[in-house]
Amino acid sequence: MVINPQKLLSLQSSTRYVYVNPISISLATSNFLLHSCSLHSNQSTVNYNDIQTVYNIICTSTNTNDMKKSLKSTQIFLSNDLIDSVLKKARFSHSNPRITLDFFNLTAQRRGFFHTSYSVDTMLYILGRNRRFREIWEVLGEIKKKDQSLITPRTVMVVLGRVAKICSVKFTVEMFKKFRRIVPVFGTECYNGLLRTLCQEKSMIDARNVYHSLKHEFKPDLQTFNILLSGWKSPEEAESFFGEMQGLGVKPDVVSYNCLIDVFCKGREVEKAFKVVDKMREEDIAPDVISYTSLIGGLGLVGQPDKARDLLKGMQEYGCYPDVAAYNAVIRNYCIAKRLGEAYKLLDEMEGKGLDPNATTYNVILRSLYWTFDLRSSWNLYDRMRRTGCMPNTQSCMFLIRLIKREEKVELALELWDDMVEKGFGSYTLVSDVLFDLLCDWGKLVEAERCFLQMVEKGQKPSNTSFRRIKVLMELTNKHDALQNLSAKMASFGTSVQVSLDKRPLKA
Questions:
Q1: What confidence tens digit (pLDDT) does each residue in 5-50 have?
Q2: Residue closest to 294 by CA, chosen among 29, 18, 35
Q3: Is residue 57 classed exposed, middle or buried when 0-12, 13-18 and 19+ CB atoms within 10 A define those classes?
């Protein structure tokens, strides 16, 4: 049975600045950003329990034969959608790369089966994150033999993104050139991917030097300049590069102008940013919500949150309606100005206009509450998130758990943890370190053991530090059987632990 590969990705990028980085939204729509991918295959046909079952088999298998037998015994059909979902889970759970690769290779051996482009790129990302570059080229070699069309410019960016994070610019460029032999269409799109990687992982100087060294081999296009414009931090350098772009006959679009507006705003040259907006209108290029969001952020940086709010209201006069990111920028401005009352009013206004606040919206306020040690207001805000169906992220959880530990509210800590386990949000590893510290401080060994086992059931490895703290308490209370069980769980992650086998009661 031949599976028709699905090749859709959603690309996002994290904000790098003190206020919302709207340019990343535009670039994401152009397939530039690769570091956070989410699956768009038809997951409605994939049963979550099947995903978890297959994932657990991967985590607990000691060799490929055991994995093959266990998978066969489940009688679960390993469709492309299921494999995509399992690999995605393995990626975000930081699972063992060797075992994950065994699963990838095992499923690829079926007659007439082809992995999707998403599966290939996800597997390469996992290997790259673990610096397994030899295995990367082995996978690429097999894919080239079987279906070379799965090796896309996106694949190039996935691999280069991991290489550039730990290797030199020279090595990254050499790796890029090596792809020439295996990528069916190796052109400007791949060149743009290299530049984007260098902008993210290295420096603008490195990206600029590589741009100049390779621009005669790959004809720069509008996307090339937009990538490089998005990375400039100096307004002077951005203006100079903008001039080079126009000199080569490449006409700027709204993304190009938004990059220029953004760099002016980050440089606190807000007046110049407003002049760029005027120029856009002269050229019949309508500023969009990203243009205004940059201006709002810039006004916040120069201490004018009220003017930014006026701009938010005035957008509609130009037929541009604020989105969640625009509201987030205004809310952030008021939080920076320590005017939380105005921030809460904007939160209410968003909901009144049918806009759903996201985790970033709440985190902006949670950050301010965190620095004032206001646990009550923070927990009330968390309650609001739960009521409105907004899923907290890791940052939300860390603000809360650290405040909870400071106030020593064990019950709240366990309530937050249970929500995380039930609904699957936040980083178990980061939150559990703080949680186990609190539980051990208060001698809540039963609760610590329960949370430890819940974490393991989710395929997450508790830190060695947390394990050692729990281990000491179990030894002191003679819970040797429970300790042996936890030690075995840790060993399943490849962690070497030593447990005393002396079960005699400790003397006082």
A1: 332 222 223 332 334 344 443 443 333 333 333 334 444 478 889 9
A2: 18
A3: buried
Q: How many CB atoms lie within 10 A of CB 291?
A: 24
Question: Under the phi-then-psi rule, with left for phi > 0, alpha for psi from -120 to 50, and beta for the rest, what region is 371?
Answer: alpha
Longest CA–CA span in the chain (Å) reads 85
- Residue 41 has a CB neighbour count (10 Å cut-off) of 23
Q: Which residues contact 132 (CB under 8 A, 6 or more apart)?
A: 97, 101
- How many other C-beta atoms lie within 10 A of the C-beta of residue 377? 16
pLDDT value of position 496: 52
Distance CA(366)–CA(255), nearest Å, equals 31
Residues of the chain with pLDDT under 50: 1-44, 499-508
Reported pTM: 0.69
pLDDT digits (tens, 9 = 90+) for 318-329: 889 999 999 999
User: In the structure encoding, which two tokens stand for residue 114, read together?
Assistant: 């082809």
Q: How far apart are CA 363 and CA 399, in angstroms?
A: 8
In this predicted structure, what is the pLDDT of residue 495?
54
How many residues are there in the chain? 508
What is the Cα–Cα distance from 166 to 198, expressed in whole angstroms? Answer: 12
What b/e readout covers 160-185, taking b as 16+ CB neighbours within 10 angstroms? bbbbbbebebeebbebbeebeebbee
Return d(Cα 144, Cα 470) in angstroms, integer: 49
Would you say 159 and 175 are in contact if contact means Cβ atoms under 8 Å apart?
yes
| Both tokens assigned to 94 | 């930081």
* 236 Cβ contact list (under 8 Å, min separation 6): none
